[in-house]
Amino acid sequence: MAKSSFLKYPLAAMAFCFSASISDNTPLAQEPSIQNGAVVIMYHRFDEDKYPSTNTSLETLRAHIEELKGGPYNVLSLEDIVDAISNNQPLPDRTIGISIDDAFLSFYEKAWPEFKESNLPVTIFTSTAPVEKSLPGYMSWSQLRELSADSLINIGNHAHQHTHIVDLDAEAQTLSIDKSDQIFRRALGKRPRLFAYPYGEISLQLSNILRAKGFKAAFGQNSGAISRQPDLMQLPRFPFNNRFGTPDRFELAINSLPLPVSAVLPEDLFLTDAHNPPSLGFTISEGIKTREDGTYRGLNCYSSQNEISLQQLGAGRIEVRLSAPYEPGRARVNCTMLGPDGRWRWFGQQYYIPQ
To answer: Each residue of 294-317: pLDDT tens digit?
Structure first.
């Protein structure tokens, strides 16, 4: 079994500067069953110390793999996870998916032998332009074809150029997706059905384009566990690097449970001036345990910018209010709640604020 250190508190969420909570000492109602979902983790580079924000050392990676192989986890491909959720099929408890962004050469040279030896499936989200241009530090099409031929590897789409694609208009976004699809068909003989947003930046416009193009699912970089009530075009992943790859944080993440929510506002994670600060809100599923007075045990929300306040309305509705608009760039809100067996339920959002 996994170690008990992850039970203490949500370490990654506590990295945020501003928090609000709803809790009291009312006795708890009966525990519900565990929500059947999954956790997807993501990496970028391996043993490339000059890129600390995206680098994971082999020592850290091996510790993660050892935990995955030695604990009560079920590592499945992202395709299998998405198919199970799409078809309302069960997943084992503690289902984990592994993803890699950007197709850096260090995955092929350093990390892939580790994953292969441990028989762990991996999805590599690839931007086609750097590979086409044979940019230093990226894999080649020959290497990607070699990996694609292995049953443990799935190649995903990461747009043509690794840019802030949400800043583009709909026509340019469509051209980027079409261009990458054409190159994948030529280079690999097939087009990927899974997508990862560059920088985890999501907009409603881009999500709708991906849906219209026939993608099965798309992943951001917002922390959280995948629930049975998701928008498959906005699935969460836990990002890891050396700084945020400590054993405590890793165990916390892979043992997390979904915080299933609906009626999430704002619908668009691309925040224009007219919607900044956003009116954040969501409704927690009726199946989630409350105290006898209807409140939730230890519900906390954390913001990467600005002070926030949290209010629970009737029928499980939660409203989160920010003290000021977000600054341009990326901003996050994570909400956690203590679940059964000392595990944390987790729902997160990442917003993009244009200049």
So the answer is: 888 889 999 999 999 999 998 899
Is the model's pTM score more than 0.90? yes
Strands (E), the chain: 18-22, 39-43, 45-46, 55-56, 74-75, 95-101, 122-126, 153-157, 194-196, 217-219, 238-239, 257-258, 261-265, 280-284, 299-303, 308-312, 317-322, 329-338, 344-353
Reference 199, options 79, 58, 10, 53; nearest CA is 53
Domains of the chain in sequence order: 36-259 (3.20.20.370)
Residue with token string 């917002």: 222
pLDDT in tens, 158-207: 999 999 999 999 999 999 999 999 999 999 999 999 999 999 999 999 99
- The pairing of beta strand 95-101 with beta strand 74-75: parallel
